[in-house]
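Researcher: Re-running this chain for the archive, since the previous output was lost when a drive failed. Same request as before.
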Amino acid sequence: MPYKFIENVTRADLCFEATGKNLTALFQSAADAVLAAMADVRSIKKKITKKVIIEAETVEDLLYNFLEEIIFLKDAENLVFADAQVTVSPDQKKATATLFGDTVSPTTQKLHQDVKAVTRHYYKVEKNGEWKTQIVLDI
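Model: Regenerated structure tokens:
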């Protein structure tokens, strides 16, 4: 599994670690973790497609802003996603993703935590052979 949830890092939040052989794989793993934190992705129909393009000067800001966009779409447009297809540009300054999901429906979907934000608490993105990040989500 390219991501895992980590216990006992924070008391009221949710922490995960994601890895990838390249930045695209890392962003994909991190997106998968955020989607899994929000809901059982198997319970979400892929009725709505959203394309997002995020730009930033650093890899750290790019990943942060990308994950924040997923959370923003949940809050602003009442959307929850089952899948994300992510690509990071070769210059590492742009992430493009297609998100597949549906409007939030507590009666038909198995919803988990209401993720409010990505925090900078314990936040890191590093490359040591493979790319790795640790992220704490405010829930």
